[in-house]
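[job 4471] stage=fold_predict status=RUNNING
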Amino acid sequence: MWGLCSAITAPSVSLRPPSSKSSLAQLCMNEMAQTPLVSLPAVSLPPNLIHLLQSNDPPQESQIPLIRDIISDDQNRIILMDAEIFALETQIHNLNANLAQSLQKRNDAAVHAHQHRSILSPIRRVPPELICEIFEILHDGKAGTRPPWSFGHICRSWRHIALSFEQLWSFIVVRSPPSAKWDALVASIEVQLQRSAHVPLDIYFPDVRSEMDSRVLGLVLSRCNRWRSLCLDRGTRLPDCNVVLDWLRPVEGHLDQLVKLEARHYWIAIPDIFSTAPRLREVVLTNNRLDESSSSIVIPWQQITHYRGTFSSECQLQTPTVAPRLVECTLGFRGALNLVPPDNRHFTQTSSPFFGHAYCGAKYHGTGA
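[job 4471] inference complete, writing structure tokens
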């Protein structure tokens, strides 16, 4: 029996518990260098004592030392395994630290390369003229009818180009905000007028009223000799409620550059100020819904080349006869239609000694007689 015990407990001679964690890790590394710990055989009971693990029988006195040696050997093995685990965790910690450091260096290198690559970006070499064309295309749709402030937020060079591109600031929206916001509107229009310098202006009133802020009117009307286009609309659709725009009278005789006029609402009473606009060529007297426009507007039809409008059929069909220079004409019909076939689209070709051939498109909305 003693020989058996000696053979079993022989491996436990070198498994003494270390005195500290550092020495534990060092011992583990030494043991692993000599013989991998996982390869050491586990000490177990001989076959004739296995029944003690499967029953509640007490061991004999002669068997107790062997069992204690097995327990001691397992405890030493646990200590060494803890040391191995600690060493591996230390390595993992160090590797994670090294990995984090390497990742940071890589990210820094990527950012550094991106910063220097941006120096070679083709967008830096785009001529200012092309950038201005881009701005003009983006702003030409007048989506949202907002001043192009956002174009100055891209970068310093684009901001400089945007601020110096006079045409970009020439579309001026004259809103009718609450009284608390009139000051902001005045400041905005002042900046636009300053940046637009002397280029022609496109003026848009999205919600005209009989009375407008005198400061805004002073700014806009005083530049009427620069108006290239004028659009008058109403934000509210109140029937039988005329909006009289007498405040437009001061511009009479000063619309030297006005080319296009739009009036998008029927209930707008406009004084006779356009008959003396020598360059007026395009007139739109309706909106996208083909609502009828104001019939009180005096138009110099003899000089009009482009027309789009919605009136009664009798009034509409007189337009080609009073506008001999028309080259493009779109007529919208509402209500009963007695004079032309009630087709949704009907195109005719008209001859005139002034323009050769004009194409007139007629759109019908309503019920035919």
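[job 4471] summary: The longest helix spans residues 64-119.
[job 4471] exit 0
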